[in-house]
Design goal:
The complex is a heterodimer of chains A (about 425) and B (about 325). By secondary structure, chain A is an alpha/beta fold. Helices cover about 50% and strands about 15% of the residues of chain A. Chain A has two domains: about 190 residues, D-Maltodextrin-Binding Protein, domain 2; about 190 residues, D-Maltodextrin-Binding Protein, domain 2 (3-Layer(aba) Sandwich), CATH 3.40.190.10. Chain A has 19 helices and eleven strands. In chain A, a hairpin with a 2-residue loop joins strand 4 and strand 5. Chain B has a two-stranded antiparallel sheet with strand order 1-2. Chain B has about 325 residues and is an all-alpha fold. In chain B, a hairpin with a 7-residue loop joins strand 1 and strand 2. Helix content of chain B is about 70%, strand content about 0%. Classes of the chains: A alpha/beta (about 425), B mainly alpha (about 325). Chains A and B meet through helix 3 and helix 18 of A and helix 6 and helix 13 of B.
Amino acid sequence: MNRNGIVFLRQLSALLLIAALLLGGSIAAQDDPAMIDWANDAAWHEAGQDAVGEASLDATGIGVNTVIFTSTDSYQAAVRGALPTEDAFPLFDWWFGYRMKDLVDAGLLADVTDIWQTHIDNGGYPASMMGSFGFDGRAYGLPKMINYWIVFYNAHIFAEHSLEVPSTWDELMAVAETLKSNGVTPFGLDVVGCRWCSFIWFEEMMVRADPALYQSLMTGETAYNDPQVVAIMEQWRDLLDAGYFSQPGDFSDNWEEPFVNGDFGMYLIGDWWTGSLERAGFVAGEDYGVFVMPGITEAGNRSLIIEGRPLLIAANSPQLDVALEFADYFMSVEGQTIWAETSEINSPNLLAPEETRPGHLVDLANAVANGEYELYTRYWEATPPQIVEQVVDLLGQFVLDPAALQTVLDGAEQIAQDYWASAGGE
Amino acid sequence: MPDTNQVSTDPLRNEAPVTALDRAPPEAPTRARALLRTIEPYLYLLPALLLVGGLLLYSVAHTFAISFTDWDLITPPRFVGLKNYIDAVRDPTFTRSFTNTLVWTGGSLLLPVAGGLLLAVVLERIPGQRILKTLIYLPAILSTTVVAAIWSYVYTNNGVLNETLRWVGLEALARPWLVFAPTNTLAMIVASSWRALGPSMVLFLVGLQTIPPELIEAAKIDGAGERILFWRIKLPLLRPITAIVVIMSVIGSFMTFDLVWVMTQGGPGRSSETLAVTMYRQAFIMWRMGYAGAVAVILSTIVIAFSIFYLRATLKRSAL
């Protein structure tokens, strides 16, 4: 073969190769399902996310790649840094309420109101729930986790001292007094190993006494040192002074062990604590029970603190449409059933089978669905983080030194005023 | 015609092979070679310089630049001049963090440095020193997080420390160690020193071994006792090692973050916060990157200034 012939063969081979690659690529592209990244900082969500992703792949042709960050801080920094760009994670977990407000204000989140409305209309979610996931009637997050803050009590301790679950504030105080007089600390509270835990009783006392006041405090309409707030905080101070709480430093960021050991009788926390207790070998209905804290006032009887972990969708992601389609599947009964079965997380979808959630929480979910409770966003997310992050430290000081109540509330009010008066305040 | 590019490979010639370059006219190639020789070391250093320049110098310049801005990572940085620096200086929490950092520096000089020196001098001359040295060094192989977790349990109300105090009849001394300032900071300095003592002891031991034995012998012949030997001979000769240990301790104490973050997160009520914790909180909890950058610049300036002054003073004395 002469030289021209060899060159021709080479050129032909190259053309065929390129054509094969292009053809193969287009075939692969046709077969390749849409895969979208779903980032979060909770490793224990991984199995559930993967399972929902697989189910979604079968049902809608959209799968997910779970991206887990081991540190919350680095996760937040990575997500925030990428959100204004096209490299933003299309799906990512976040914190609801004011914790997502700056992302909403910057126009970085997709509006998911229509998806919510479809599933509310189907009877899957109570309409009141959507409000915690957005602002001004629009929703920007979907409920990946919904938790209510309730009191866990050690059933053995209650039985030993012939105590019944309290249904009024006075009964709760009587239970606390009985435990105290029998050498058992009534309530566990840790503000040393757990910095943020200082807000737990603050928000609870507020919504049990005057939920409307709590709401107006969160939006800056009421001052932290308002006489009504002071009066409620004085009630909490009296409980601290009465020795109803564990002492600072009693336990080190491990709440299960002292509760299981009966070092304290009751613990106010999110219902997600169920999983930790189960892992510690404590069985609901046998070893422990739960109740909603009774109100100090009649209005406070209907209050319930809600905590939500929203699934957010990045507005700048090139996969926005696919992410919205996946989100719709995730909200559905099918998606939520798989999610609840594989993640050990209670589905907020009311149509999901009851067996997917722990028995002792079914009644509470039904009560919420029936409108028996007014939901109030957890303090951590109910007011701007610029206020929360500083006030929790002050509240921690108050727990350590209840006599500093007025100083703490004055300091909190100064922080709130500075924020609301600044350009960031609204 | 002989190939001028051919390299001489005569095995009997015990010198570098002669190349065409060597045979070329002397003037220009000599200059080129001289130039090559001059820049050659820098070429070897180039990858490292690029790495350091890219990762360190760029970060420093970027941090310095953002310290004059208001930036929350999701909206573009906004120039605010010296506002972050002024806010930091006026912020009582910054002042408290600065004070705590100074306490950490003092504690780090006292415990790991002075303690390490004392241990090195004592262990140099007692039997069973190898086992003791190993035991003292052992905590250094633990990560800070592990050290923090261990000491958190030691310091709980019913932890090892309080139980021991009660057991030996010193119940009055038992207390919640991580709750109130300044006890919480002092308690964490002890925890940190437990880990830092070993490495500084080893450095001092190395230093002691470099002291010529003749000097010690001569001093002994002149009638010097142990005390004079230490203060007049050993300590002055340990000055270079001491400088290294002090610099490392001071820099380490100014950068104290992980132990505090794991044990108290700077609390309760920010009472045990250090400057590094303040910087982290402002950056990754409050999303005030500019303010955090200002704290980082202040922190770095203090550390660099201290290092320069201390090293200059120490080296000048060594030269004398």
